[in-house]
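haha ok so turns out i had the wrong file open the whole time. this is the CORRECT one, sorry everyone. sequence first:
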Amino acid sequence: MDLVSIRIITNDVARLVSFYENATGVSATWATEDFAELSTPRGTLAIASTKTVPLFAPGSATPEDDRSVIIEFLVDDVDRVYGNLTESVTDFVNEPTTMPWGNRALLFRDPDGNLVNFFTPVTPEAIEKFAR
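then structure:
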């Protein structure tokens, strides 16, 4: 088994795709106006319209309603990235902070309120864990 992607359901695909393209520097691939993907070497963030939900199960997902998932991106330098995001991110939950497990992490919310964590491993153990 292999985790392939995380999908966000939104009322405004274009707005959310634009936000993630700006925040990550990754260009989206659009399948339709209701579905786009931002792919990285480790996984894909899919962004889909509420119009796609009935294709799976009507009413099974609602946008702007999650408070339990954090979407995480490994970045080379979280402090530099934080500086680049200060004009486009309006809801920082915390500034870059070194976590007990060895990652320096930046937590913020996307325009739909989803939590996003950009992190950089800083301890030898964390660096080894994420070595490519």
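The two ends are 20 Å apart (CA to CA).
again sry for the mixup
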